[in-house]
Write a structure and sequence with these properties.
By secondary structure, the chain is an alpha/beta fold. The protein is built from six helices and nine strands. The radius of gyration is 16 Å and the shape is globular. The protein has a single domain, classed as Rossmann fold (3-Layer(aba) Sandwich), CATH 3.40.50.2020. Helix content is 32%, strand content 34%. The chain binds adenosine monophosphate.
Length: 182
């Protein structure tokens, strides 16, 4: 199930563009203006629920930090557990980690070693607000596999299609984006 035109317009028009944030040349896609709009947030969450209720998922895994907002709400709607994939150094128990390259330097994401262990071969939906270069999402998808689960799809509210992040991630997992920015 994909978005219908009415839903798309409501969600698209509630995303705010902030030019030159956090640095010159970047147009930051601000989703706080979806969250504080009950209609837009509701349409979005209802769409995600309708799409994923048939996927037979065991967990939703959200990427630090905006992926938590959509992922945790969706997990509750689906009646399944939520797993946070966090930036390095935030999780208190034993973790598995995965490094990825940034424009300058490297970053790292982590998940608890036993995050998916209650369900053998767990079926996981990964979610974040936006995919740009795909570096974060690729590392997060690897972590899900390393933790013994399967990433059955990765979902992003916004996909930047002028970068090749979606194509690269599709080698690892199916990718679903609600709004594409070209
Ligand atoms: P990437 O690893 O390049 O795909 O970057 C994805 C992460 O950075 C996501 O967690 C996004 O929230 C954030 N991000 C990257 N570019 C933007 C942008 N133009 N607007 C808002 N968030 C962004």
């Amino acid at each position: 199930m994909i978005l219908n035109e009415t839903e798309r317009k409501i969600i698209e028009s509630s995303i705010r563009d902030i030019p030159d944030f956090p640095k010159p040349g970047i147009v930051f896609k601000d989703i706080t203006t979806i969250l504080n709009n009950a209609q837009a947030y509701g349409v979005l969450m209802n769409h995600l629920y309708q799409r994923y209720k048939e996927y037979n998922l065991d967990y939703v895994a959200g990427i630090d930090a905006r992926g938590f907002i959509f992922g945790a709400a969706l997990a509750q709607m689906l009646g399944i557990g939520f797993v946070p994939i966090r930036k390095k150094g935030k999780l208190p128990y034993t973790t598995i980690s995965e490094k990825y390259s940034l424009e300058y330097g490297i970053d790292e994401v982590e998940v608890h070693i036993d995050a998916f262990s209650n369900i053998p071969n767990a079926r996981v939906l990964m979610i974040d607000d936006l995919i740009a270069t795909g570096g974060t999402a690729n590392a997060a998808a690897s972590l899900i596999n390393k933790a013994g689960a399967t990433c059955v799809e990765s979902c992003f509210i916004i996909g930047l299609t002028f970068l090749d992040g979606i194509k690269k991630l599709e080698e690892k997992t199916p990718v679903y984006t609600l709004i594409e920015v070209s």
